């Protein structure tokens, strides 16, 4: 078997993708750099050499997740620069469920002094991006985010998305109220 040598940038991206998987499964506190290394099929010292600390790895993962959400919304806005257009993009976000779960873990870990500013910046940048892409008011963006957080939580619980569990009555009732669901 011939192995292709990855560039430093490709290896960095490979480790961040592995970190998305690992942090989505275990959260910030429950994930080790060794778990990330195993998923990425590299050594744990290599992960530390690239990122320095687990905290820096998590921050890179959080920035990646936030950047991917932003890119999905930018792409959606090309076809439909409305809140409904961005809301329809949640199907893509639910298909990439681990990104949303990583963001949820980031929000939960925001009380950590080393993470809080970055988590708040990520959320704020996404909030402002929605306003720029759709020309909506702060109140409209707030409502979009409120519904989006509900969809994110439902996706994390596998109520929505490609791996959704069979719905119970409360799920059917709640899902019928969502304005941005396909």
Structure, explained:
The protein has 182 residues and is mainly α. It has a domain at 54-175. It is built from ten helices and no strands. It has helices at residues 8-26, 33-40, 44-51, 54-79, 83-88, 90-95, 97-108, 116-134, 138-156, 169-175. The mean pLDDT is 93.
Average pLDDT value? 93
SSE series? HHHHHHHHHH
Q: What is the helix content?
A: over 70%
Indicate the structural class. mainly alpha
Distance between the termini: 44 Å
Radius of gyration, Cα only, in angstroms? 17 Å
Largest pleated sheet: none
Task: Write down how many β-strands occur, each being a DSSP E stretch of 2 or more residues.
Answer: 0
What is the number of helices?
A: 10
Give the uncertain stretches in residue-range form: none
What is the overall shape? Answer: globular
Which band does the percent of strand residues land in? under 5%
Write the layout of secondary structure elements.
Elements: H1 8-26, H2 33-40, H3 44-51, H4 54-79, H5 83-88, H6 90-95, H7 97-108, H8 116-134, H9 138-156, H10 169-175
Helix pairs in contact: 1-2, 1-4, 1-7, 2-3, 4-7, 4-8, 7-9, 8-9
Describe what is shown at a glance.
The model has no long low-confidence stretch (mean pLDDT 93).
List the main descriptive attributes of the protein structure presented here.
single chain, 182 residues, mainly alpha, 71% helix
């Amino acid at each position: 078997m011939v192995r292709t040598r990855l560039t430093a940038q490709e290896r960095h991206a490979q480790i961040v993708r592995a970190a998305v998987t690992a942090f989505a499964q275990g959260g910030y506190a429950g994930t080790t750099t060794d778990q990330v290394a195993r998923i990425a099929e590299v050594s744990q010292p290599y992960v530390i050499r690239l990122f320095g600390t687990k905290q820096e790895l998590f921050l890179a993962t959080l920035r990646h997740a936030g950047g991917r959400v932003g890119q999905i919304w930018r792409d959606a806005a090309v076809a439909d620069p409305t809140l409904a257009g961005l809301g329809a993009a949640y199907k893509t976000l639910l298909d990439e469920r681990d990104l949303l779960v990583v963001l949820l873990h980031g929000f939960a870990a925001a009380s950590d002094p080393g993470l809080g500013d970055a988590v708040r910046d990520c959320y704020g940048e996404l909030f402002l991006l929605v306003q720029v892409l759709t020309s909506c008011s702060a109140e409209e963006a707030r409502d979009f985010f409120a519904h989006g957080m509900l969809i994110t939580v439902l996706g994390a619980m596998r109520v929505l998305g490609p791996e959704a569990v069979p719905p119970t009555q409360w799920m059917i009732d709640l899902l019928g109220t969502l304005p941005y669901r396909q």
